[in-house]
């Protein structure tokens, strides 16, 4: 059984890539990302658009970077065009942050099933990201969806649920168990550290270390579970967003270097992967 760790960063996170505020041209972004050892880059159609995706594509191809399409469909049918584009781009799957948000789980179920059927028809896998302001906004309703739809697969960005549920630290055994249920259905993972009040923490601040260790433990748990049931590429996306995801001081300057922090997360994840047995 072949299992390989593939690490990605996000085009959104590279515009700008650090606290200088400088937005680099796509050619330079792709060169920088490839030289850092990333395997691919996520193209976020919420932060950008289709025109941007086509503009950056040749630069990604030149540097051997795999594109990962992140979709924000505002209607059920609008995902179709994105799936077709993702197949053409060679995206390993489409990360869906669905903007169709029925109030009830019973209303959500047919939306998820229609998107999954559409993906099967076109021939591109879909994963539903755990994300605020979308159909998976709430941890509890998402768990109900997973119970109702056994085939539903998750892209785990747990930072959103830490903020959404305002988890106290340390988390209770019950709450840790709920997160474990999400990880057991996750086929890819995203790297950002949150606290109960902040979506994106600086990694080296002393007061944040308890949250850093919590997330490193979740990444280990998620990848270990993935290795026990899956094969192919385990995709981990280091996604540290620019302001207002990144906290700023009174002058609007970011309080840490996100490029260096993303490389730190990348190194942590590679170390965890090796401790779990490495590529095989």
UniProtKB/TrEMBL annotation:
Which InterPro entries would you find in this protein's record? Xyl_isomerase-like_sf (IPR036237)
> Which SUPFAM superfamilies does this one have?
Xylose isomerase-like (SSF51658)
Name of the protein described by the UniProt record: Xylose isomerase
Native organism taxonomy: Bacteria, Pseudomonadati, Pseudomonadota, Alphaproteobacteria, Rhodobacterales
């Amino acid at each position: 059984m072949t299992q390989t760790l593939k690490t990605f960063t996000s085009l959104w996170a590279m515009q700008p890539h650090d606290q200088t505020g400088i937005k680099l041209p796509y050619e330079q972004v792709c060169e920088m990302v490839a030289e850092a050892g990333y395997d691919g880059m996520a193209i976020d159609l919420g932060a950008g658009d289709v025109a941007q995706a086509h503009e950056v594509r040749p630069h990604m191809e030149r540097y051997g970077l795999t594109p990962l399409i992140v979709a924000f469909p505002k209607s059920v049918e609008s995902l179709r065009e994105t799936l077709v584009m993702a197949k053409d781009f060679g995206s390993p799957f489409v990360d869906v942050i669905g903007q169709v948000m029925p109030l009830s789980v019973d209303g959500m179920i047919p939306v998820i099933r229609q998107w999954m059927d559409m993906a099967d028809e076109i021939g591109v896998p879909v994963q539903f990201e755990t994300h605020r302001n979308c159909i998976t906004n709430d941890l509890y309703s998402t768990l109900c969806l997973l119970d109702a739809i056994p085939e539903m697969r998750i892209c785990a960005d747990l930072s959103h649920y830490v903020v959404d549920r305002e988890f106290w630290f340390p988390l209770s055994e019950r709450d840790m168990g709920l997160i474990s249920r999400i990880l057991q259905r996750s086929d890819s993972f995203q790297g950002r550290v949150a606290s109960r009040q902040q979506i994106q923490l600086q990694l080296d601040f002393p007061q944040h270390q308890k949250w850093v260790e919590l997330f490193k433990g979740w990444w280990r748990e998620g990848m270990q579970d993935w290795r026990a049931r899956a094969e192919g590429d385990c995709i981990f996306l280091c996604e540290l967003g620019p302001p207002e995801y990144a906290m700023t001081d009174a002058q609007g300057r970011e309080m840490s270097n996100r490029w260096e922090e993303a490389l730190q997360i990348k190194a942590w994840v590679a170390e965890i992967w090796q401790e779990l047995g490495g590529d095989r």
